[in-house]
Structure formats: C-alpha cells, structure tokens
Amino acid sequence: MWKNLARVLEGKIVRLEPLARRHEEVLFAAARDERVWRWMPYDASESHEGFHAWLEDALAAALAGTEAAFATVDAGTGEPVGSTRYLALRPEHRGLEIGWTWLAPAHWQTGANVEAKLLMLEHAFERLGCLRVEFKTDARNERSRAALAALPAQFEGIFRKHMLVRGGERRDSAYYSIIDDEWPEVRENLRRRIDTIREKEVR
Fold first, then answer.
1. How does strand 132-138 pair with strand 95-103?
2. pTM beyond 0.90
3. Which terminal Cβ of the chain has fewer Cβ within 10 Å, N or C?
4. Rounded-to-integer distance, Cα 174 and Cα 138, Å
C-alpha cells in the first residue's frame, strides 16, 4: 500500500486537498448542474442526500485504502469547485487510475482541469513511482476523450458493454493510459498549456 497517497497538491490555478466533510456544502452547490454528471455512472447532485452519500462513499473508500479522493480548490478564492480521485490502485504493479473527475462548469476552460491532471500525474509518477496511470470514460463523452487525447494519453480501445449505469443503461468505456516513459513529454506539454492559459489571463 502506498503511503501519502492523498496529500495536499499545490498548483497556481488549483490546489488539490484530501476530500473531507468540510468541503461538502460548497461542493454540493458547485455540483448542481446536470452537465457535470451527464457521463457519470449516476447523478449525485439530484438531492443533498444523494450528494452526501457520494461523499461518504468516497471517504469510506479512502479509509479502506482502496481510493484517494480530492477536493479541487480554486487557488485564488479557496473555494472547492470540483473533485477527482485515484482509484483502481495496484501498488504491487505500480499502477492506478485517475477518475471520478468533475468541475463546476464555471471553471471549464480555465486551466483548472489541466493543472489538476498535472498535479495528480506528477504525484503518481514522481512520488509514488507509478509505471502506468490509466483513465476511462464513457465512449460517447467526446469532451472527456478530447481532453485525455490532449494530455496526451494513449487511446487503448473500447470495453464494450463495460458498465450498467443510470438504471441499467449499457455503457461502453474508452480506455486511455500514460506510462512512465511518456511522462516527461506529457509533463512538458501540460506545463506549456498552463503557462499559455495564465499568460492570456494577464493580458
């Protein structure tokens, strides 16, 4: 098992903090948009009770050591604006998945997701010693697939009828990965993208 899997990861646009109950109220407000959950297995924002259950499930998985969930916090305001996780942990094979990622729509196209991915990948490859980091998304989620391709992550194929979601809907999942050999190139690409975004904000 990895030590220090969940820790504060500091960026210039966002800060990733281990998910905690203190984040719940502000995160629930940030999550109240159907676009956030369209491609998730279920919509956790339909009610406060549903969102509370989502958060408690994430905390229970963290306590069990099977996942590590983060609150994505705006570095400027200090407000939580989304969440992301490490899951499918395979420390014996030095691999894991990054997923359950969402952001309030007001923070789309701001560099928040790009920097969150940089922080998580940096932690995975440079501190945890990962050889492989993988991602999966609904095969119909063109926005997510474009974002993964832009990292760039390698498309590995479609798992057909991989999951039953939203009351029995059959989901095909698109799988992507980054391996340690590719990490230096990915890191530089993400850093360039963040610098470009921040330069535009200054102008």
1. parallel
2. yes
3. C
4. 6
Q: Following DSSP, what letter does each residue of 124-192 receive, concatenated?
A: IIIIS--SEEEEEEETT-HHHHHHHHTTT-EEEEEEEEEEEETTTEEEEEEEEEEETTTHHHHHHHHHH
Distances (CA, A) of 85 to 53, 169, 202: 16, 24, 31
Domain of 171, CATH number, reads: 3.40.630.30
For the segment 129-184, what is each residue's pLDDT rounded down to a tens digit? 999 999 999 999 999 999 999 999 999 999 999 999 988 999 999 999 999 999 99
Range of the domain at 80: 9-202
Residue 71 lies in a domain: yes
Determine how many CB atoms are found less than 10 A away from the CB of residue 2: 17
pLDDT in tens, 9-18: 999 999 999 9
